[in-house]
Amino acid sequence: MPSEHQPSLFASDEPSVDAAFTTARRIVLDEHSWVEVVPGWLSGADALFDDLMTTAGWEQRDRWMYTRRVVEPRLTAQYPRLADAPHPLLHTAAQALSAHYGVTYDGLWINLYRDHRDSTGWHGDGASTRRRECVVPVLTLGAQRRFLLRPVGGGPSTDLRPVAGDLVVMGGRCQTDWRHCVPKQTTPSGPRISVNFSASEQAVPD
Ligand SMILES: O=C(O)CCC(=O)C(=O)O
Ligand SMILES: [Fe+2]
């Protein structure tokens, strides 16, 4: 099992993923939805983080909230075509995810939470997840932040705290029956990047 604390078999700092998903742990949210956490799925997360910080095409986005346009409190780089993704490891990661979950991941978007004041509010992934059941993998790099899930009608949150290299995978009806968010926090934190894998097949209703 790859671990940051064990010497790599290949004595290399090149980031790599655990294609066997050895550490995967599934949390059943309800009859139709689940979330899987795969601790340490990526080894060498810091090298990938550093690389993406400098090479990704970060953009400041805004969006309509009711009647006003608000600037999103984070930066995003979108790669609708996986071939354009800025690091070869992202291609390897998408392939491993496709093989494991049976969904062809052919694009991705990357978010940068510059510090603890950046966040994303409660949402479902919308246009990229129009199938009744979808599988949405999110890889964490950089600082640890909270990642919360709660039922669409409200209720207690499932509180995940992925650290660098951890994978969180939302499955089933998570994008319609549940909401997820990365809340702001008062405790100072360094930057975090999340890599969100998308599949054009899931953007088409079934
Ligand atoms: O940053 C994360 O962990 C989640 C991001 C997310 O949910 C999104 O961009 O849709
Ligand atoms: Fe999301």
Short summary of the structure?
By secondary structure, the protein is mainly beta.
What does this structure look like?
The chain is mainly beta. The protein is 14% helix and 37% strand. The chain has a domain at 27-76 and 110-191: Alpha-ketoglutarate-dependent dioxygenase AlkB-like (Jelly Rolls). The chain has helices at residues 45-55, 88-101, 174-177, and strands at 16-17, 25-28, 33-38, 42-43, 59-65, 68-79, 107-113, 120-123, 136-142, 147-151, 158-160, 167-172, 178-182, 192-198. An eight-stranded antiparallel sheet has the order 2-3-12-9-14-7-6-5. It has a four-stranded antiparallel sheet with strand order 8-13-10-11. The protein has a two-stranded antiparallel ribbon with strand order 1-4. The relative contact order is 0.22. Bound molecules: 2-oxoglutaric acid and fe (ii) ion. The site of fe (ii) ion (FE2) has 3 residues, from loops. One of its GO terms (molecular function) is dioxygenase activity. Keywords: Dioxygenase, Oxidoreductase. It comes from Nocardioides lianchengensis.
